[in-house]
Amino acid sequence: MTEKENQLRALTSESENAVSLITNTISRLETVNGRICDTRQEIDDYRKEITRIDSSMEEQFSHNAKIIDKFRSFLED
């Protein structure tokens, strides 16, 4: 084997290692982005649940306020 063939093999190996590093990095970043998407979906689900609960509480608050007003009107008579 000539010196240039050895150089070519070494450069080819180095190039393959560099490509492998990039491919692994892309894969790891895709995994991280997947976890970010999952976490954001959980947050969105929590937000919807909190909004639903808050809406129910607002309805109950309004209902209670009407009852309070009616009882107050009885006392004023």
What would your notes on this structure say?
The chain has 77 residues and is mainly alpha-helical. It is built from one helix and no strands.
Task: Summarize the entry for a quick read.
The chain has one helix at 3-76. 96% of the residues lie in helices and 0% in strands.
Relative strand content: under 5%
Could you tell me the number of beta strands? 0
Which structural class do you get from the secondary structure elements?
mainly alpha
Largest sheet: none
Average pLDDT taken over every residue: 96
Give the count of helical stretches.
Answer: 1
State the oligomer.
single chain
**H-E order:** H
Head-to-tail CA distance between termini: 112 Å
Low-confidence stretches: none
- How would you sum up the global shape? rod-shaped
Taking Cα atoms only, what radius of gyration do you get, to the nearest Å?
A: 33 Å
- In which range does the helix fraction lie? over 70%
Give the topology, please.
Layout: H1 3-76
Task: Identify the notable features of this structure and list them briefly.
single chain, 77 residues, mainly alpha, 96% helix, 0% strand
